[in-house]
Amino acid sequence: MNYVRRFLDERGFLEVETPNLNQIAGGAAARPFLSWHKDLSLPMYLRIAPELYLKMLVVGGLDRVYEIGRQFRNEGIDMTHNPEFTTCEFYWAYKDYNDLMEQTELMISEMVKSIKGTYKVVYHDGPDSKEMEVDFTPPWKRFPMLATVEERGNFKIPRPLESEECNDFLKKNVR
After folding, report:
1. Residue 129, pLDDT above cutoff 80
2. CA-to-CA distance for 175 and 169, rounded, in angstroms?
């Protein structure tokens, strides 16, 4: 977390804290945890994402903000999914997704290099699994979303995307 904070701070981002308890659930499409505020006699939700508050800060005039904080999603739990976890979300006014992909790539690849001394990480996906290597050397390959989904799903998504035919197809074929 120190590396991520330093990386964003050096680029002029402001670290903020947004509420963990909210009167409405929002910020992501996930089932929230419900709580109760005793003194106010109000139902409260544990946050599922800081997105809405961070975007409000950007609209309000802070052009670079981030938060490292806990999220709570009342959904499945297994060896790879925990309903309580830490994320980092950052928002940068006047930048598009290409700019944010470049910054994310730089942050992660340089963090790996600073920790491991190389861009490559070797790991095992379980005690009996084969050794695997992930190479974080930039630049990372970019995948066009629709073409990649169609290729890997072995189907063609009907166009136009806003058509009833497309909506029916996605409801039937995407889980």
Report:
1. yes
2. 11
